[in-house]
Each structure stands twice: as C-alpha cells, then as structure tokens.
Amino acid sequence: AAVPAGVLALVLGALLWAPWRALHGAPLAELSGDQDFQLFLHKNLEFTRKIKGDVATLQRVVCDTFQLCKEEELLLVRQDLGVAQVPLEQCHSRTFQAEACFSQIRAGLRAYHGSLAAVLELLPGHAGLVETLQLDAANLSSNIQQQVEDLDLATVTYPTEHRGPLPAFSSRFHHQVGGFFILANFQRFLETVYRALRHLTRL
C-alpha cells in the first residue's frame, strides 16, 4: 500500500534531522589536495550559505504576514498537504559517495526550483527574492554538474517524482501552510548540502 504523503514527509524529515554521521572511507580522499576541487567546495559553501540566508528572510516574511512561525503547531495540517521533504540520504550515508550525493542534491534543487512557484504565488510582493532563489538553485545545480563533469565522476539519475505538479492546495490557508513547509524543507535541505560540502573539504 502507498505510504501517505504526510507520513513519508515526517519520516524523511526525521532522517534529515538525524545526527550527522561520521563519514568513513570516502572515495574522494585523493582529491583532497586538488586546488580546483577545494576552490569549488569553498565557493559553493559560501553560495549555499547565501541561499540559506535568503530562505530565512522569506521564512520571516511568512511568519510576519501569515503568523505561521512554528512548525510543531502545523504538523497536523501538513499531513493533508502532500509537501514532502526531498531525500538526501546519500549525503548522510556511512558509505558516502560524492557522485551519488551530488546527484541527489541536483535532483532536490530542481524540485525546490519548481515548488518555489507556490511561494511566488503566495508572496507576490517579494517576487524578486523568490525569483532570485529559483535562479540561485539553478546556478548551484549547474555548478555541481560542471564539477561532476570536470572530475569525470559517474552520474547517478534519481527518480523525478518530486518534480511533478505542485500540490493542489484546497484553501488559501493550506496554500499558506504549504508555502511555510516548502521553505522549512528547503532550509533543512540546504543545511544538509552545506554539511556535505563542508565534509568534503575535510577529507
């Protein structure tokens, strides 16, 4: 039987909040001294931090505009929305593989690029910032793809179910809560991306 979207979202959310595991035996140890790779990592750590800051700004707007500020107060509504957290288990795993992690990051960035359209509809007065976020998500994905090609890493293709149509919100309130969780999930996703890139700088 299919797992309800709300349950799936909570399970994936719990996975992403799990303590960051020590990553052993990473296959990129030989790249640790590669200056171009290190430059890529540090540049995109800063870029990811910038995107996180913009998401946090929009989260404050949602809090101020709709009084939607605390996730724990909205979990029951979340179960009806079909807004799932994009998985990044390949960036957590003990058997960390950079190409698999990078592929999941790129798939997730594509998913959030699409789902931010719901936030754009919700916050037309902040369209410039939402569109900047979409552009930055596309640019970060492109940066990672270029680095994968430069390193001649095998690419991994992940299912595209998270890039389907946006949930059909049944009410304005559900749309607002959906926007809240899209941003909350994106922030968690970016925190995991940041930790994965930072880990690679320490190999």
TrEMBL record:
Domain of life the protein comes from: Eukaryota
InterPro entries: 4_helix_cytokine-like_core, GCSF/MGF, IL-6/GCSF/MGF, IL6/GCSF/MGF_CS
Endpoints of the signal sequence: 1-25
SUPFAM superfamilies the record matches: 4-helical cytokines
GO biological process: immune response; positive regulation of myeloid cell differentiation
Pfam families listed in its UniProt record: GCSF
Record GO terms (molecular function): cytokine activity; granulocyte colony-stimulating factor receptor binding; growth factor activity
Main location: secreted
Record carries keyword Secreted: yes
Stored PROSITE patterns: INTERLEUKIN_6
Subcellular location: Secreted
UniProt keyword list: Disulfide bond, Glycoprotein, Growth factor, Secreted, Signal
Gene3D superfamilies the UniProt entry points to: 1.20.1250.10
GO cellular component term of the entry, any: extracellular region
Family: Belongs to the IL-6 superfamily.
PANTHER family assigned: GRANULOCYTE COLONY-STIMULATING FACTOR
Name of the protein this chain belongs to: MGF factor
Species of origin: Pelecanoides urinatrix
